[in-house]
Amino acid sequence: MNFLDGSLIPENQDKLVITAAPYGPEWVPSDFPEDIPVTMEAQIQKAVDCYNAGASVLHLHVRELDGKGSKRLSMFNELIAGVRKAVPDMVIQVGGSISFAPESDGAAAKWLKDDTRHMLAELDPKPDQVTVTVNTTQMNVLEHMEAEDIAGTSLADPQVNAAYREMIVPSGPGFIEEHVRRLSAAGIQSAFQFYNINSYETVERLIRRGVYKGPLVMNWVAISGGMDAPNIYNLANFLRAIPDGAMLTVESSMRNVLPINMIGMAMGLHVRCGIEDNLWNQARTAKMGTVAQIEQLVRLAKEFGREVANGREAREILKIGVFYDTVEETLAANGFAPNPKGRQQGHLRRVA
């Protein structure tokens, strides 16, 4: 991305798109009973509350009545239908992990098999987006957490802690290409989860080969443990690589969420919050629910002078439902240099 004169001035930036992640599949209801919805009615109401607070994108996971993360597509269909009816403008983004939470105490925290994950393209009603992980990597969500972050929660249990510490994201070339093809064929946008430069470069190559022909919508996932650490050097390095036509949301975990979101907000990027990412206020004197986290970001956006996007505006910024016919059109629309022809190696800047 290029940051020219005026890039930090709010009227030259898109309205802020806030993604809410309120379902927190790594937690059990006893970890934060005031804010973890369990019944279907409560899960739908949580989406409504997030939208009313200022979030225009819902990162969706589902819980069974016993409080465990659901792996049943029928439950996803039910929640999507309920949210769609209650807040029709909200962008629904299904977490592509389905649920990585262990099914029983001491069980491994692991992602489901590829065939099951591919079935997210068959959800009915279909979501607007499904998150797509890129390249197999370690996902130790605990690596940069402090002992106080998880004290008194289920993640402090040694068996559960070990399960999450050893978690791997399976996302090889065959899975990624097939998954993107199925989602695109269903009219569902791929929301790419980038952990570092190499995961981004893999998708750029998919675009240049014509595997993916749509808007480049992505999260920079700075949670450490096999992914980028949340610091300005990693973010700046990532930003230098991506084209100007991309839509980027920054994401981190625990008390890194707020400062990373403030940096992203100032730079014209977009933000994500919620108990899936963080349970605490910044002083860690009390737990902070998803709605309160959204309201905090809305207040800060006003201080920055940056307007917050509603659902309809977020759909335009994210280009929901947009796909392109050719590789050339996809490259141009996203701000990439064209594919090289012969000895011509592309352009440093896009030309008319």
TrEMBL record:
Keywords, sorted A to Z: Metal-binding, Transferase, Zinc
Cited Pfam families: BKACE
Gene3D superfamilies per the UniProt record, alphabetical: Aldolase class I
Record-given protein name: 3-keto-5-aminohexanoate cleavage protein
Keyword presence, Transferase: yes
Cofactor(s) this protein cannot do without: Zn(2+)
Source taxon at top rank: Bacteria
InterPro entries: Aldolase_TIM (IPR013785), BKACE (IPR008567)
